[in-house]
Predict the structure.
Amino acid sequence: MRRLAIIVAFAFLVSVVGAQAQQIDIGFGVSGLNSPSSEPSTVFPAPSMGGGTYVGFSGDFLVHKDLGVQGEIFWRAHQGIYNGYQPYRPLFWDFNGMWLPHLARRVTGEFVAGIGATSIRFYNNYYTCNYITGCTNYTSSNHFMGDFGAGVRFYPHGNVFIRPEARLYLIRNNVEFNSNRATRYGVTIGYTFGER
């Protein structure tokens, strides 16, 4: 129910603001995540958040020339194993300010900076239910974060683009893992609606 409400709210926001936007972009991406590992001398080291394949969606719209607003969500495609016994899955979602400078005829740069959160879901063998969120088999640990990123959009055919990208996440109080930062590298395939 909560996911449906978020999707409906996002669609409404895009439709209302999109009427005044110069350009709207949507994309689907695949990435990997790197994070520093523990020092070998640590007695009880926290695991690294890095590793695994991440998939996600992004959407943006330009509101004035090359300036716009962007949002995205990426999550680990398969559950990881936390400290050898607990299944878990990180999710990263953020909202960013965006600058899209034109670099060449079919090439556009992309620079983003913003805020969001990481939600680390630890899975259990039982379900917890309530009237608002329904039933889940996980507990979440949520942390505020800032993010910075860059990418290059290549338009090989019409309004279809391929975007190699990188994001730096600065995660506040990430006590479950050994570092407060993670870097995501990947590629997004998307489509541009409107002017380019």
User: Anything to note?
Assistant: The first strand starts at residue 23 and ends at 34.
